[in-house]
Amino acid sequence: xxxxxxxxPQFDAVWQRYLDRETSQSEEAAFLAQLGETxxxxxxxxxxxxxxxxxxxxxxxxxxxxxxxxxMIKPAKRQSAFARLRLWLELRPILGWEFAGAAVVASVLFxxxxxxxxxxxxxxxxxxxxxxxxxSHAPGPNGNSLQFSLYAPQARSVALIGDFNGWGSTTKVxxxxxxxxxxSVVVPLPAGRYQYAFLVNGERxxxxxxxxxxxxxxxxxxxxxxxxx
Amino acid sequence: xxxWNGLPDKALIDVCLTGRSEAYEILVLRHQxxxxxxxxxxxxxxxxxxxxxxxxxxxxxxxxxMFKGESAYSTWLCGxxxxxxxxxxxxxxxxxLCEDLADHDDTLPANETTRPDYQAExxxxxxxxxMILNRMPWHYREVLILKHLEEYSNDEIASLLDETVDxxxxxxxxxxxxxxxxxxxxx
Lengths: 229, 187
Known about the structure:
The complex is a heterodimer. Chain A folds into two domains: about 15-55; about 80-229, Immunoglobulin-like (Sandwich), CATH 2.60.40. In chain A, about 30% of the residues lie in helices and about 20% in strands. Chain A is built from six helices and nine strands. In chain A, strands 3, 6, 7, 8 and 9 form a five-stranded antiparallel sheet that branches. In chain A, strands 1-2-5-4 form a four-stranded antiparallel sheet. The radius of gyration of chain A is 28 Å and the shape is elongated. Chain B is built from eight helices and no strands. Chain B starts with 8 loop residues before the first helix and ends with a helix. Chain B has one domain (about 1-185): RNA polymerase sigma factor, region 2, helix turn helix motif (Rna Polymerase Sigma Factor, Chain: A, Orthogonal Bundle). In chain B, about 70% of the residues lie in helices and about 0% in strands. The radius of gyration of chain B is 18 Å and the shape is globular. In chain B, helix 7 packs across helix 8. The longest helix of chain B is centred in the last third of the chain and has 22 residues, at about 165-185. Chains A and B meet through helix 1, helix 3, helix 4, helix 5 and helix 6 of A and helix 1, helix 2, helix 3, helix 5 and helix 6 of B.
C-alpha cells in the first residue's frame, strides 16, 4: 500500500481490486509476492475484518411491514380503461416501448375492446359472456377459434407463437394491424390447453399478464396459458 | 394477485401505474428484507429501521412514475431508504441511532444445532462489528454496507448514491482502511 507523507493511505487500485475479489489467481499471487511483510499482514487484516462484516446475519423484515404499507396506500379508485391508458401514456412516453409496458397496455385496451367485440349473437352460446382476457373466444368458421390482440403501436411485426404452432417453427401466425396501434388475429383451435406468447419485431417476447395462468419455460420466460373447453 | 407473482419488477410497476395498487404488495414483499437490512445496519436500531422502511415504500409508491428502470428497482429503493436515513441522522444531529447496543439485537434464531455458547460467541462478534460500523462516519458506513453486505458493484453504488464511480472507489478504500483499524483496536 502506498502512503503519503502524512501517512494517510492513498488509493491503490490493485489493493482495491484484490479486496473486491476482482483479481485473477495469477494477479493475486503476483500482487501478494511484491508486497513487503508489513503490507501483506495489513492487507490480510483488512480482508479478515471485511469477512467478519460479510458474515453479519440478515434478518427477516418485520412481519407487519407489508401490511402497514398497503394499509397506508389509499386503494386506488378503479379507473376506466381509457383513463388508465391515458395515465400510463402520460407517465411513460410510448417512444421507449418496452415489453412489460406493452403487455399491460395490451391487457387494458383489450379488456375494453373485448367487451365491445363480444356482443352475443342471438341465441348464441353463453360461453361468449365469459370474462374477457387478452385471448378471447370469437366465432370462427370451423368451430372454436380464439382472437388474439396486442397493443403495440411501435411494432413493425407481431407474431403469435405457442405450442400449437411449434412456437413459430411449423406455421407462421402473423397479427395484422387493426387500427389505433392494435394488432390482432383469429386462430381456429380445437379444445385443449395451450401456451402462447407474442413475438414482436421477430425478437421481443411479450407475455399476457392477465392470462388465466402462466408457466415458466426453460429459458426463464413466462408463457401465458389459455384453455379452450 | 397470484397472476402477477411471476412478473418482473418493471411489469409490476406498470400494473400499479394503471391504478391496480394491490400489485404493489408483491413489490413490497419482494424487496422489504433488503431495504430493512440495509437500514438496520446503517442505523443500528430496529424500530427506526422499520419506520423508515415503511416510509421508503410509501415514497417509492408515490414516485413510481419517476422510476425509469435505469437501475434495478431494489437499487432505487435502497437509494430512497438511505436518503431518508441520512435525513433522520442529520435532523437529530447524530451519527447513529445505536449508541447503546442494548437497543441492538443480533441474536440468531436458535435451532437444535445451535449451542448456547456458540450463540453467545456469535452475538459478541456481531455486536463488535455493529459497534465498529456505528463508530464510522455514515458516509463510510453506507458504502461498506452496500459493498460487503448487499454485494452491490461500484457502478450500482455510484448510481444509488448519485456519485461518480471513482468517488465510490476512493470512499470505499478509505472506509475499508478505517474499518480495519477499528476492527484491530476492538479485537
